[in-house]
Structures are given as C-alpha cells and as structure tokens.
C-alpha cells in the first residue's frame, strides 16, 4: 500500500505529464494541417489525458486505485480525455464507421431530406447547414430510452443499435468510476441522474473539406448537456477544446479510441468541481471530409438535477439552480432532440 501511495504521490507531482504514454502521440492524426489557416482558429497540440478503461475495472485493487486517481485528475484538471482499451468490439466500431460513411453518400442526399422535420416530438432529425455560422450535415436520433433510427439503410440501424448498447455499458462503467473519484458509492451518479432511463441523443456529423465550406466553422463554440459526451470519428482534424487554462487544444483521438467530454449536468451535480468544456469544430484546416458519431448521454428527462449537498458549503455556495433535464433542454426554446446547453441560464449570479 505504501508503494501505491508513493506511486500516486508521484503521479500527483507530475502534473504536466498527466497526458499520456508516448504511444498515443499525434501520429494518429490523418488530417493535414494547413499552414495557412486563419490564426484566430489556431490551437495547440498539448496532450490530452488517455484513460485506460480496462484498468478502471481491474481486479487488482492497487492498479484500480491508481487508475481511479488518474481519472479523478483527468476529470478535475481537464474535463475531457481519450478512452482506450474499452469494451466496444473492433467489429462494432468498424461497422459503424462503414455504415455512417455509406449513409452520407452524396448521391443519396435527396433520400435523407425526409428527416428534415422540425417538430418538438422529432426522434430523428436530418439537416444540412452551409453558412458562415456552421458547415455540417447531420443526422440526430434519440437512441435511449427508446431507440429510433431511419429504417433505411437497414445495416445502419443494426450497427448503430449495437454501438449504442455497447457504449451505454461503458458509460455505466464510467458513472461508477467517476462516482468513486468523487468519494462516493459506485451508484451515486447512476442514482443522481437515473441513468437507466437516461435520455441519449446520437448525432452523426459530416464536415466538408475546407474547399467546400462557406466559412471556417464546422460547429460553433458550445458545451453539451448531460452526464458525458462520447465521440468516435473516421479521421482526426478540426475538433478543438478550450482548456480550463483558456487554451484551445486540438483533439487527436487514438485509433479506435473514444473521446469523453464531461457534460453540463455533471458540472451542475458537482457544483462546478467537474466542468464541461467549450469546444468547436474548425473545418478551415481540414483538407479532407470528416465525420463523427457523438452521443450525449443524459439523465432521465424527469430527473431534477441540482448541485449535490455534498458539494455545497460556506466556501462553495450553490452555483446552479435545479431543473428537470427536460426543462433544461427546452430552456432556450429548443426541442429535446436539439440537446442544447442552457448552462448559462442555470448559473446563479
Ligand atoms: O464532430 C465533432 O467533432 C464535435 C461535434 C459536437 O461537438 C457535437 O455534436 O456536439
Ligand atoms: Fe459538442
């Protein structure tokens, strides 16, 4: 145990290295940065922590302790990290990549337009934005508690359903691990968000190469609601996250890895201890097309989320008001499937 404490202490003292083992370096980047991209959207290649999921589940209690401490620091000091050695089979990962790529076939764009509704009960929504504010085609589906997907093509439906089930297992594992990093019983987050009935929205985002976009912006700056956001992609390039030090960092996800970003509602629950971070997609520097599959894993719609009493005291007064997840998603007049952030409105002065 003494050995572990000293290891954890060592880990603690080596803050700048929290990043990662060198094998996850930027060699995975498949997008070629344009030397001439507009400076205002430039970002640094600072490393982002890599969390090994298998170690969080390790039977070796010492190893698990170290992994949890690493996760705690990744949550508190970054708020986003890469997840590797997770349990999604390669086959499931690769099928999603193939099916999503086929779905976005430019010759079938007319077929996709049938999902271009804008009603409040939309469970599937397609859109194409090509403007100064946003350059992306997307398909959004509500994937939990009920699973909705276009019936056509049928392979896409099957692959995404499997992927969604596998990803929910990982998010359950993360909820248990994150609860422990906060010093609570494993079920703390599951109960606080009622994740078993959690409202999940999956977005397939396609970004054109810069030559075909109307501006440098793929998606403008935002944070996402929910517990965590999971993201997989075909190629690296364009996604940038604003660190707590106010520095934009380029995201380079290791091959078959997943990017995890903490959501607004974890920030609310922890009264600001674990924060959601602003991110954006810049297409200005990508010379090739890119797509991502992003899932916002939320609390159940009827769950009121407010700061846990354990996070509030004289030194840390309550920073957010409580609201049901449904009301917080609709606070800006948006529809549930828009999964818009309302963190600003929920902040107490
Ligand atoms: O596609 C990406 O890289 C990010 C997408 C995103 O931030 C979102 O869908 O909320
Ligand atoms: Fe996002």
From TrEMBL:
<dbReference type="InterPro" id="IPR050295">
    <property type="entry name" value="Plant_2OG-oxidoreductases"/>
</dbReference>
<dbReference type="InterPro" id="IPR026992">
    <property type="entry name" value="DIOX_N"/>
</dbReference>
<dbReference type="GO" id="GO:0016491">
    <property type="term" value="F:oxidoreductase activity"/>
</dbReference>
<keyword id="KW-0560">Oxidoreductase</keyword>
<dbReference type="GO" id="GO:0031418">
    <property type="term" value="F:L-ascorbic acid binding"/>
</dbReference>
<keyword id="KW-0479">Metal-binding</keyword>
<dbReference type="Pfam" id="PF14226">
    <property type="entry name" value="DIOX_N"/>
</dbReference>
<feature type="domain" description="Fe2OG dioxygenase">
    <location>
        <begin position="198"/>
        <end position="299"/>
    </location>
</feature>
<dbReference type="InterPro" id="IPR005123">
    <property type="entry name" value="Oxoglu/Fe-dep_dioxygenase_dom"/>
</dbReference>
<dbReference type="InterPro" id="IPR027443">
    <property type="entry name" value="IPNS-like_sf"/>
</dbReference>
<comment type="similarity">
    <text>Belongs to the iron/ascorbate-dependent oxidoreductase family.</text>
</comment>
<protein>
    <recommendedName>
        <fullName>Fe2OG dioxygenase domain-containing protein</fullName>
    </recommendedName>
</protein>
<dbReference type="Pfam" id="PF03171">
    <property type="entry name" value="2OG-FeII_Oxy"/>
</dbReference>
<keyword id="KW-0408">Iron</keyword>
<keyword id="KW-0847">Vitamin C</keyword>
<dbReference type="GO" id="GO:0046872">
    <property type="term" value="F:metal ion binding"/>
</dbReference>
<dbReference type="InterPro" id="IPR044861">
    <property type="entry name" value="IPNS-like_FE2OG_OXY"/>
</dbReference>
